[in-house]
Structures are given as structure tokens and as C-alpha cells.
Design a protein that fits this description.
Elements: H1 2-10, H2 19-31, H3 35-53, H4 55-79, H5 90-110, H6 118-128, H7 133-147, H8 149-152, H9 155-180, E1 182-188, H10 192-203, E2 207-213, E3 220-229, H11 233-243, E4 248-254
Antiparallel strand pairs: 1-3, 1-4, 2-3
Helix pairs in contact: 1-4, 1-5, 2-3, 2-7, 3-4, 5-9, 6-7, 7-9, 10-11
């Protein structure tokens, strides 16, 4: 996704993106040097830092992404040689290219990986501080976008570069947040033991039983409190329906869930 957005929509329209691809773009605009070589050389240095700070698991995925990008870039360039999509519509090229780039990075971060460059810096900061990945990348890339003026001598392209940066950061946050979004359930059922056991066994999610009293009936009831990922909601509803179709269920979105099985608490 990132390779397509960068080489098909942004580079042919002289639009600079952020991070290491932005530096590679500036070098390309100034000298014509292939972007894949600059991209690989800079990332090789940054990967050394990630090995010590982010660990082997993150770094292996990053190395895989960097190698894949380095190999895929010339293939896409050769396949689209002579093709100028949206050549007379730079703003549309900016929007579509940035969406591809942001989506590609977002999918990578959702798998706890990185495509290299300022993504590594953003992952390091996000590891210790509760700052969104898109915001970190936004600030670290501003200087790179401004630097493109020295190669292009066109402030309009600089503006398009900032638009690209904003759109890709926005799409990145949407993809990552959608993957991490959590929900909470309040479930009232006479078969609470069976439902709770199945949620524990099938989804490996904790269930808390709470005592309650029905105001109208005056009867004692058991209420279950469950926190889960949004993507697990359908499985939970199917499970409840199979055991007790008459169960009373309340589902709501939560801003954040921190603890075992979810995110770590990140404060100074």
C-alpha cells in the first residue's frame, strides 16, 4: 500500500511525504538517485537503534518491511513506467497517495511492526508516553517537508506535502485505533455461570459477576461485566444467543482499556 501511494501518486506529481521516504524523495528530486537505495541506507542505521530499544520482535518485523519495500519499489516503478495518474490534479493525487501511505503504515503498526524511518521514532516515543503515533510522526516530519523547497523551489508543492502528511497521519490513527478499539458488556442472565465460562474459555476474556436487585421484581440477579475488543463483539453476541436468547445485554464503546490483555498504562 505504501509503495503504491508513494511511487504511483506522490513521486510523479513532485509531492514530498514525510520520514525517510520524504528524504529519499528530496534526494530523488535533486539528483535523480533511485529512492529505494536512499530509503534502505537510512533505515539500516535506524534499525540498529530499534534493536536495542524496541527489541528483536519489533525489529525483525521492521527489517522484513524495509526489505519488502526496497524490493517492491523498483517493481512498481517498472510496472507503472510512463503512467501519470492524476498528473493535472495534484490535490487528488495528494489525497489518494496519502491515504495509501497512511493505511499501509497503520496496518503495519497494528501488527506491532514498522515500515522504518520516523515510524521507529514514533514507536519508541509511544512505548514510553501516551502520545498517538500519528502526532509523533506529524511533528518529526515537518522539517523534512519544509526541506523539499530547496529541491523543488515551489511553495505549492510544500503545501501539498503538508496536506499529504496530515492525511496520512489521520488515516494512520484511524486504522490503528479501529484495531485497538474496545467495548464493554453488561449482561444479565439466569445462565450467567455458563455464559461466563464460555467467554473465559473461547475468548480468554475475564468476566466479573456483580450482585443486583431488580427494582420492579425485587428479585436478586447476577450481572456480568466484560471488557473485550470490538472485533470480538460478534462472537460474544453469538455465544450469548446460543446459551440464553432471552439474556439482557448492554454494549457500549470505551475510550481506553488498560491492563492485562489490553494496553499498558503510559504516563510520565
Amino acid at each position: 500500500m505504501y509503495s503504491v501511494g508513494w511511487t504511483v501518486f506522490l513521486l510523479p506529481n513532485n509531492i514530498t511525504t514525510g520520514g525517510v521516504p520524504g528524504i529519499a524523495s528530496i534526494v530523488y528530486f535533486a539528483s535523480g538517485f533511485p529512492v529505494q537505495y536512499t530509503y534502505f541506507a537510512i533505515n539500516a542505521f535506524l534499525l540498529m537503534a530499534s534493536l536495542f530499544i524496541l527489541g528483536w520482535k519489533f525489529s525483525v518485523k521492521t527489517i522484513f518491511a524495509v526489505l519488502t519495500m526496497t524490493l517492491v519499489l523498483p517493481i512498481i516503478q517498472s510496472m507503472t513506467s510512463g503512467v501519470n495518474l492524476l498528473h493535472d490534479q495534484p490535490f487528488m493525487a495528494c489525497v489518494i497517495g496519502a491515504s495509501f501511505c497512511g493505511g499501509g503504515i497503520g496496518v503495519t503498526f497494528s501488527a506491532n511492526g514498522s515500515s522504518g524511518g520516523t515510524d521507529i521514532i514514533a514507536a519508541i516515543v509511544n512505548k514510553y508516553h501516551d502520545i498517538t503515533l500519528g502526532r509523533v510522526i506529524l511533528f518529526t516530519d515537518m522539517i523534512i517537508i519544509l526541506s523539499s523547497y530547496f529541491a523543488l523551489h515551489d511553495w505549492e508543492k510544500v503545501v501539498y506535502g503538508f496536506a499529504t502528511l496530515y492525511i496520512s497521519s489521520f488515516v494512520l490513527d484511524q486504522v490503528v485505533n479501529s484495531a485497538r478499539q474496545s467495548v464493554q458488556f453488561f449482561i444479565i442472565s439466569n445462565k450467567y455461570q455458563e455464559i461466563g465460562h464460555r467467554i473465559n474459555k473461547d475468548l480468554h476474556r475475564g468476566v466479573t459477576f456483580m450482585d443486583g436487585v431488580g427494582c420492579y421484581t425485587g428479585c436478586d440477579v447476577k450481572m456480568m461485566f466484560v471488557l473485550a475488543k470490538k472485533r470480538e463483539s460478534t462472537t460474544i453476541f453469538r455465544l450469548i444467543k446460543d446459551i440464553d436468547p432471552n439474556a439482557f445485554v448492554s454494549q457500549s464503546a470505551v475510550i481506553g482499556v488498560f491492563g492485562e490483555g489490553f494496553d499498558r498504562i503510559k504516563v510520565k
